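Ticket #4471: structure export looks truncated?
Reporter: QA, pipeline team
Priority: medium

Steps to reproduce: submit the single chain below to the structure queue and open the exported record.
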Amino acid sequence: MPVMNIQYKRKDYINLFSNTVFGINFTSWIRLLARNKFSIAPAFWLKAFFITVNTLFFAPVYFLERWLFHSRISKTKVERPIFILGHHRSGTTYLHNLLARDPNLAFCSTFQALIPNQFLLGGGIFRRMLGKFMPATRPQDNVKSGAEMPIEEEFAMGNMCGVSFTHSYYFPHSIRSVFNDVVTFETASPALMDEWRTNFGYLLKKLSFINKGKRLVLKSPSNTGRMKELLSLYPDAVFIHIHRDPHAVYLSNVNLYEKILPILSFQKADNKEIDDFIFYSYRKIYEKFLADRKSVASSQLVEISYDALVADPMGQVERIYQHLGIDGFSHAAPHFKAEVNSTAGYKTNAYKSPDDATRKRIANEWGFMFDAYGYPKG
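Actual output as written to the record:
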């Protein structure tokens, strides 16, 4: 059985510029610390101090930007957003990077997600700063990264307010309670729901504003558990769900947490707790998704498999455009082709096959997904 093995190295304690909480506002930072009872491991005190100083440094820009642009942002219309859904490590990033090449669409870029409170005024400066410190590829795989690259807007929400699954990366001891509060909303209070609606709506307006009203294509695995709530905000939204063999999803998630938690967390994660959470979160998010799917019009939801996308990316993207009524495929096709060609040599991470005990647990706990999408359990 693949054993979760999260290892912390000295560089993880002193690397000050790789944390995605870099651009959080002061109020959200203090609330995040308070929710977790300020339980920062001593080895991470320097990073926490650095983030605290950052929040104070960014504060004047935040208030000035709010004063200058709030009225215009609030009046901005969000044009029928496109949401990419799918569990972590199911191919959502590859699909997002493809669709983001359409010049008629807009997305949340990495620098916008990391400094969502200041990117209208300080975007140029912070974009150059991030360009100097960001690695060329993501730590969990070989997918290209960069300040201008698309990223999940969940990171922006994490730096704007208290409703984001990314907060569990920083304080992994609370990962299950954060998931229940902000992904499936199972334990969310009315106040927390209002906070999510207000801030998510404002973020999409802000992204639409800076992109001059272009239609947004957004990707967040957490949104897989929020389809019903997203429809309540945007009744004309459309959804693309990408799914993958659950065995591969499990193995890739083990690798994900092993790679990102040492970089992002302010406390040391427990291996068994994170491994158990992978099983728990996958089951809960897909139980909710499959229930919510019943109330979504067929014209607003298209589902594809990761294997089909990799085998025929152009054909699958064309099918998505046709099914959802998205205009401009022929115009965007050369841009899609360029993205496909740029990843032609990409090799996915190689993992050992799960042992019998792990496969049995996957089949027992996630069996409904094998049945729903026809993946072999053996």
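Status: closed, not a bug. The export was complete when the record was re-opened. Leaving a note from the reviewer for reference: DSSP finds 17 helices and five strands in the chain.
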